[in-house]
Amino acid sequence: MRDAYHEELDGLSDKLVEMTRLVRSAMARASTALLDADLRLAEEVISADEHVNKLETDIEETVFELMARQQPVASDLRALITSLRMSGDLERMGDLAVHLAKTARRRHPESAIPPELHATVLEMGQIAERMIAKAGSVIASQDVQMGLELDADDDQMDRLHRRLFDSMLSPKWRHGVEPAVDISLAGRYFERFADHAVHVAEDVVYLVTGQHPEDIGEVAD
Amino acid sequence: MRDAYHEELDGLSDKLVEMTRLVRSAMARASTALLDADLRLAEEVISADEHVNKLETDIEETVFELMARQQPVASDLRALITSLRMSGDLERMGDLAVHLAKTARRRHPESAIPPELHATVLEMGQIAERMIAKAGSVIASQDVQMGLELDADDDQMDRLHRRLFDSMLSPKWRHGVEPAVDISLAGRYFERFADHAVHVAEDVVYLVTGQHPEDIGEVAD
C-alpha cells in the first residue's frame, strides 16, 4: 500500500517535469515569435497552453485524491502541498508565455521589438528558457545546489529588464508609444516568469532541506 | 480536542479577513497616491506591506502545525489548503498595491496619471477596493452569492483596463513614452489585483459548495 503511494508521488513529480518541458517549449517559441514576428509560432504557443492547464488540473486531482485516501503526514503531506504550489507556478508561467505570444500576434506582421532591443529580449528569452529547464532538473533530481543557482539567473533577468526601461526612456527612443506599451508589458512577463521559476526551485530546496533558500545562503556566507 | 481545532480554523479565517483589511487599505492609499502624487501615502503603503507578509507567514505556520498535529481529513484538510492559497493571493495583492505606490513615488512630485485618465484610474481603484472588501466579506460570511458577484466586477475592471490602452494608443495622446510605460504597468497591476480577488472568492465558493463557480454558473443558466 505504502509503495503504491510512493509510486503515485513519483508520478506527480513526472507530471511536474512534463509541465516544465511544455512551458520551456512555450517560452522558446513565444520569444522567437516576438522577435521574428512569427505568427505560426505564436498561434502554436496559444493553442498548446491547454495541455499545461490540463496537467495542472490532473496534478490537483491526484493530490486531493491521495490526501483523502492516504491521509499522509509530515513530509509526505508537505510534498503533496508543494506539488500543488509548483503546478500553480508552472501554470502561470504557461500563461505568461501565452501573453508574449499574443503580443507577437497583435503586432504581426511587424515585430513588437525594435532592432536595438533584439539582443536584450533575445537574452531575456534565453534566460527564461534556462531557468525553466533548471527548474525541471531540480524537480527531477532534487539537486539543491542547482536550485540555489536560479537566484543568479533571476538577478540577470532583472538587469536586462532595467535595460529595456533605460532604452525606452532614453532621449534616443524614436519608436513612440505603442512599442513602448508592448515592451513594458513583455518585460514584465519575462520578469514574472523568472520569479515563478525561482519559486519552483525554492519549493524543492525547502522540501529537500527543510530550510528556506535565504537561510541556506546565510549559512554559506 | 476537536473543538479547539475548529477554533484554530476560525482563527485562520480571522487572519485572512485581517489580511483583506490591510490589503484594502493599501489599495485605497496606493490609488490615491498615484492620482494625487501623494508621497506620504505611497511611503505608508510600501512600509505597511510587511504586516501583510507577516500574516501570510503566520497563516502558513499555523496550517502546517495543524496538519502535523491534527492530521485532518477531507473537508478540514481542504479548508487548510484553501487558506494557504488564499493567503498567497492576498500577499500578492499587497505586492501589487506596493508596485502602484512605487510608481507614484518614482513620478513624485508629478502625478503618474495624466488628467484625462484620472476618472478611469479612480474607477479602477474603486473597483479594486470593492473587490477586496467583498473578498473579505465572502471569507467571513461564506456568502456564495457575493462570491459569484466578483466576476462582474472583474469584467468591469477589464473594460477600464482596455480604455487605458485605447487612450494611450489614440492619436490624441500627447504625453509621450514615460507616462505610457507607467500606465501600462499600473493598468496591469490593477487587473492582476482583480484576478487575485476573484481567485480568493472562487476558493471560498468551492470550499462551501464543492463546485467551481463556472459550474454553478452553468446550472443557473
TrEMBL record, chains A, B:
<protein>
    <recommendedName>
        <fullName>Phosphate-specific transport system accessory protein PhoU</fullName>
    </recommendedName>
</protein>
<keyword id="KW-0592">Phosphate transport</keyword>
<keyword id="KW-0813">Transport</keyword>
<dbReference type="Pfam" id="PF01895">
    <property type="entry name" value="PhoU"/>
</dbReference>
<comment type="similarity">
    <text>Belongs to the PhoU family.</text>
</comment>
<comment type="subunit">
    <text>Homodimer.</text>
</comment>
<comment type="function">
    <text>Plays a role in the regulation of phosphate uptake.</text>
</comment>
<dbReference type="GO" id="GO:0030643">
    <property type="term" value="P:intracellular phosphate ion homeostasis"/>
</dbReference>
<keyword id="KW-0963">Cytoplasm</keyword>
<feature type="domain" description="PhoU">
    <location>
        <begin position="16"/>
        <end position="103"/>
    </location>
</feature>
<dbReference type="InterPro" id="IPR026022">
    <property type="entry name" value="PhoU_dom"/>
</dbReference>
<dbReference type="GO" id="GO:0045936">
    <property type="term" value="P:negative regulation of phosphate metabolic process"/>
</dbReference>
<feature type="domain" description="PhoU">
    <location>
        <begin position="121"/>
        <end position="204"/>
    </location>
</feature>
<dbReference type="GO" id="GO:0006817">
    <property type="term" value="P:phosphate ion transport"/>
</dbReference>
<dbReference type="InterPro" id="IPR028366">
    <property type="entry name" value="PhoU"/>
</dbReference>
<dbReference type="InterPro" id="IPR038078">
    <property type="entry name" value="PhoU-like_sf"/>
</dbReference>
<dbReference type="GO" id="GO:0005737">
    <property type="term" value="C:cytoplasm"/>
</dbReference>
